[in-house]
Amino acid sequence: MIAKPVVVFAPAMPGERRRILSLGEVKWGKPMGPGHVARLRRARDLLDAKGYDVRDTLLACYSGVGFDAALAGERDVRTVGLQELYG
Fold first, then answer.
1. What is the residue range of 29's domain?
2. CA nearest neighbour of 59 among 41, 83, 34, 81
3. If you ran DSSP here, which 8-state letter would residue 87 be given?
4. DSSP per residue over 19-78, as a string?
5. Going by C-beta distance under 8 Å and a sequence separation of 6 or more, which residues neighbour residue 13?
6. In this structure, are residues 18 and 57 in contact, taking their beta carbons and an 8 Å threshold?
7. Cα(38)–Cα(76) distance, rounded to whole angstroms?
8. Hey, which of 9, 17, 28, 67 would disulfide with 53, CB 3.0 to 4.6 Å?
9. Structural domain count, the chain
10. Residues 74-83: pLDDT tens digits?
11. pLDDT tens across 50-72, in order?
């Protein structure tokens, strides 16, 4: 299954770096875990190097089947499952 990226930008402000509010990944049929978060952190670092403002970017994992328990302790990661989407 192909991962689907989710990027939420703040409105552009003249003279300021473009701010990324959230950076995420969607997996419908596979539980998400630390490897997914590591990939998002790497993407955030690359976007920072490209000149985007990522100082308060929220990382988000969207899954149709759940999450590895290791994600529960991640303070900068939001997990969004079916309950949050359809509850």
1. 4-86
2. 41
3. -
4. BEEEEEEEESSS-B-HHHHHHHHHHHHHHHHTT-B-TTPEEEEEESS-B-GGGGG-TTEE
5. 19
6. no
7. 12
8. 17
9. 1
10. 888 999 999 8
11. 999 999 999 999 999 999 999 98
